[in-house]
Specification:
Elements lengths: L1 H14 L4 E7 L1 H18 L3 E7 L2 H9 L5 E4 L8 E16 L11 E2 L9 E2 L17 E2 L3 H9 L5 E4 L10 E7 L3 E9 L6 H20 L3 E2 L1
Parallel strand pairs: 1-2, 1-3, 5-9, 6-7
Antiparallel strand pairs: 3-10, 4-8, 4-9, 4-10, 4-11
Amino acid sequence: MRDFDSAIYDLRATAEGRSGHVSMAAVPSVATNLLPDIIKTFATEFPGIKLHLDDDSSRGVQGRVERNEVDFGIGSLWNANKLLEFTPLFADQLELICHRDHPLAQDTGAIGWDQLGKATFLDTGVTKALRARQDLGESKFDFPNITTLVAMLRSNLGVSVLPSLAIPKTADDLVSRPLTPTETSEIYLITRKDWALSPAAEAMIETIIRETPQQVEKYGLTML
């Protein structure tokens, strides 16, 4: 009877969101900037729920959701998929980023895409989907991992474009400039259609949606 009562208690606690497990994936810029405060709030409200967070590129995040490896993901729309639902969260302005010794870092203010044509361009998962990027021609460098990209930029290998949220704030050897015309990276909450989420995952999603506006204001982003 004690075992039965314990099992019923565990089921009830899970159904009420007082216990359970959440697995999610997010792009690094969101995982390291927006999510810490949100997860702290979630942990205070739901101390019995365990959380697993993977950071990955937008392509990787979408793939993890598609393969049912995580409950949901947060990233840009890599490829439209009828099996997935994309709920808009916020938009982040893209900026040029390069080493402080690079010629394009010598001026301040906005810079046109046409001025990047003669520079060695370092591609990322973000840049490949941009319309303005197509006019720059093919690049022989492709670094989907942001950590690797930043290391290459710090070696002054070339220039790239990143959302403002992904630009390292403590890298004194790197310089960023706004682009004209303005391009943005739109971030979505990615879930599977016609799929029942656990109460724990639903609680996490509700917390993210509720707390995101405050983080958006904090980092100067734009709500969608």
